[in-house]
């Protein structure tokens, strides 16, 4: 009897120890998972706050540029913290989430750079020198009016804007030499802002509609589902342990009852010994039947216990296989990486961006390209001639070419035009290599323009 009690006690102790171990492990990983969920929730709040500020008009958004930059830095720190998390097999795969967060911050950085340029332009045109002529003040105000009307007007004529900037620049050269650099710098900033305005709106739209919002929502739901699964697992395992203990208690009580019956039979045998052999034989037969009955009951109880133990073991194996399968699926998912494709080479003219800036008006675009051919195809010979005769006229030639190339999104031509203008404004000598580079870029641009006009003229002719 004492040995039986010790065996039951060991079984109960092992079952409770196993239960405590599993529950402690699940609670530990649930705590880690909850920390990850809290971090994702903080990142979601930060991104939502940024999204609300991006919906504001440009004038209000520029005033909040410092706040947006601080929130971007906070989001960057939160992303680094999320990236450093080491999750177990119970955790959620956050590789794709971190990747989308990094791409989101790259787009936000590009957007902030455009906003800073606009903010600098507003600040430069607002701060007036102590000594400024009324003509220079009027040109500055007119330049600000052109920029703001172009940015906030729903209907804009790019050619009219270009001609107005050209007129302001021409009037600037009529001012005293001391007042020209500031206005020329403002005109250059205005040209850059207007040429990048469509790109800025594109970046805002991509940032507001970035897939990171859906990804964070998906991760929150997945994390909550995992926490529910862990809770369900603890509940199921606790139920199995309680069932095993209940079976053990029932078996222990039955064993005690059998022992009590056996002791009663033995005491009755000792108290009533028969005098004749027939009575002894009957008593012996009764005792054997009783013992056989007890042995059968013990065998039945042991069989029931074995069946229950096998059911408990099978359920535990099934749960273990299920979690192992989830682990394999999670590892295979985390090893899958997106394919990276090399970007296509960029052409000398971005016709798609130019057409998008003109609100997809093909006729206006063809008209603008024809004007470019008629007015600027001889700019290199004109520049060579005016360079030796009048450096001021040569400066106007490359400045005009710089503005036109910005309108056409011809980055190579615009870059060499800016370089030549800066060289002339600084009073330095123009190198022959620079002129050759200008001629090369202009010829390449004119070649693309001729090809584009011929192609679309052919399409328009045959489609009609």
TrEMBL record:
Q: Mark the transmembrane ranges.
A: 231-250
State the Pfam families in the record: Hpt
Keywords per UniProt: Membrane, Phosphoprotein, Transmembrane, Transmembrane helix, Two-component regulatory system
Q: Which residues carry this modification: Phosphohistidine?
A: 399
Q: Where is this region: Disordered?
A: 310-345
Domain HPt positions: 360-452
What domain of life is recorded for the organism?
Bacteria
Q: Where is the composition biased (Polar residues)?
A: 327-338
> What protein am I looking at?
HPt domain-containing protein
């Amino acid at each position: 009897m004492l040995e039986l009690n010790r065996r039951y006690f060991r079984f109960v102790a092992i079952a409770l120890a196993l239960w405590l171990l599993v529950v402690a492990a699940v609670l530990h990983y649930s705590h880690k998972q909850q920390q990850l969920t809290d971090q994702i929730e903080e990142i979601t709040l930060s991104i939502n706050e940024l999204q609300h500020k991006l919906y504001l008009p440009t004038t209000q958004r520029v005033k909040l540029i410092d706040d947006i930059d601080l929130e971007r830095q906070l989001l960057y720190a939160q992303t680094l913290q999320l990236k450093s998390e080491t999750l177990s097999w119970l955790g959620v795969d956050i590789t794709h989430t971190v990747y989308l967060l990094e791409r989101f911050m790259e787009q936000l950085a590009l957007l902030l750079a455009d906003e800073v340029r606009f903010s600098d332009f507003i600040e430069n045109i607002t701060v007036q020198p102590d000594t400024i002529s009324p003509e220079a003040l009027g040109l500055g105000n007119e330049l600000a009016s052109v920029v703001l009307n172009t940015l906030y007007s729903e209907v804009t004529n790019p050619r009219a804007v270009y001609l107005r900037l050209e007129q302001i620049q021409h009037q600037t050269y009529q001012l005293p030499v001391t007042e020209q650099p500031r206005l020329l710098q403002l005109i250059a900033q205005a040209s850059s802002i207007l040429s990048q305005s469509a790109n800025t709106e594109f970046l805002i739209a991509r940032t507001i509609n970035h897939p990171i919002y859906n990804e964070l929502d998906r991760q929150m739901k997945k994390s909550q589902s995992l926490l529910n699964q862990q809770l369900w697992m603890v509940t199921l395992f606790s139920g199995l342990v309680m069932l095993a203990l209940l079976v053990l208690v029932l078996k222990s009580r039955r064993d005690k009852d059998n022992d009590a019956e056996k002791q009663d039979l033995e005491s009755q045998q000792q108290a009533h010994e028969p005098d004749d052999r027939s009575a002894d034989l009957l008593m012996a037969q009764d005792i054997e039947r009783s013992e056989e009955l007890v042995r059968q009951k013990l065998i039945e109880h042991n069989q029931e216990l074995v069946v229950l133990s096998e059911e408990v073991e099978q359920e535990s194996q099934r749960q273990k296989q299920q979690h192992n399968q989830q682990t394999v699926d999670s590892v295979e998912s985390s090893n899958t990486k997106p394919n990276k494709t090399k970007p296509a080479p960029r052409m000398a003219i971005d016709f798609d961006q130019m057409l998008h800036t003109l609100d997809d008006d093909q006729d206006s675009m063809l008209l603008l390209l024809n004007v470019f051919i008629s007015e600027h195809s001889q700019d290199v010979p004109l520049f060579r001639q005016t360079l030796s005769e009048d450096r001021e006229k040569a400066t106007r030639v490359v400045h005009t070419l710089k503005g036109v190339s910005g309108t056409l999104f011809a980055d190579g031509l615009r870059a060499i035009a800016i370089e030549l203008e800066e060289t002339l404004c600084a009073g330095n000598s123009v190198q022959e290599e620079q002129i050759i580079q200008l001629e090369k870029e202009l010829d390449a641009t004119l070649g693309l323009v001729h090809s584009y006009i011929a192609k679309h003229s052919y399409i328009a002719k045959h489609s009609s």
